Amino acid sequence: MITTFHRQLIVLTALSLPTLWLSGCSSQPDIPVHEVEYQRYLDENTQAVQRQQQQALDTAEQALKQSEAQRLSFFSPGYAQQLEQAVSASRQASLTGEHQTLINKANEASNLLELALANKKQVEKLFENVLQRLAQVRELQADKVQRRQYQQFLQNLQTHFLALEAQQSPTETELNALLIQLEQLQRSTLLARYWQPAHSTLEQAASEGAAAAAAQTYQRASALVDDTGSYIQLQQGDPQEAARKGLEALRHAQQALFVSREAKRLQNLNPSQAEQAVLRFEQLLHQISQGLDGKDRRHMSLQDQMLSIKQRLDELQRQTTPSAAVPPAPAASSTPSNNAGEQSAP
Question: Could you tell me how many helices (H) and strands (E) the chain has, helices first?
């Protein structure tokens, strides 16, 4: 027989079961202390590895920047190339997470930088005269004017730098050979810059018959062109003097070309065309005369008009600079000249 007490006990038990079940589901077991410490260790170790990798990559990149700043690809081409390869491998290892490879390649880049700098120091000492001469030739723009010859010399020079990396110092004979090559490079550069333009212009004048149509002008230009070429070829002289001679030769060659053209044009004129040519030239002189002092000088021969204008210019120059002793120009004559050459207009 179920008593009242039993009924109350059953009710209390039924009411307490859901509470016990809910409290059991909401509680979690505690994580052991040693597991927490291990996780903290893993996090800290991962951060340390990441910092170490970044430092290694920064070291490699800095080595490459210093190599470029010191122009080690020129002074130490072998070491510089290996350094670039080591940095490239470091970058790849950083992307793929190869920790030890990254560290090794970064250290390799640093070591190669030291070797390359040491080789550069040796190059600057042993090849001092060659490098100084090379700088002079570069100032003449040999790298632009004689690009192929210049690049060939650099390649030859760098074979000696590579040999020095292998502990093979240059001999006196090899150094002298390099200096001779630089002399040839300078000579060809000067010829290309200062002689070739005048020579080409003179050849153009010759092809148009300047030797016959303007013989005196052509011969003078030809002599100056030859003199410029001889100066550069034989004297190996001052580049500034070569430039002066070259410009003078070019101007005379241009003069020979254009005088020849004008002379042939005048020779082919009929009387009416010749008259118009003279009048056009006289009109130019008249415009100059009007601007100079307002005088009309067209009653004079062309040569006398030019002499009168020159005389007036000399007077104005003396008035501007009283202390300058300028010899007077020949007096202009109003008498027509009998020289046919003086009557023709260019």
Answer: 16, 0
Query: Which residues, other chains included, contact 218 with Cβ-Cβ below 8 Å and sequence gap of 6+?
Result: 202, 205, 206, 210, 211, 256, 260
> Which two structure tokens, joined as six digits, stand for 268?
């082919």
CA torsion angle for 33, 36, 40, 43 (degrees, to 10)? 160
Q: Are the C-beta atoms of residues 83 and 110 closer than 8 Å to each other?
A: no
Q: Is residue 334 very low, low, confident or very high in pLDDT (cuts 50, 70, 90)?
A: very low
Q: What are phi and psi of 176, to 5 degrees?
A: -65, -40
Question: Which among 147, 144, 146, 177 is positioned nearest to 160, based on CA atoms?
Answer: 177
Q: Where are the domains of the chain?
A: 49-126, 134-263, 271-343
- pTM, two decimals, is 0.71
Mean pLDDT across the chain, nearest whole number? 84
Confidence category of residue 48, pLDDT binned at 50, 70, 90: low
pLDDT score recorded for residue 346: 34
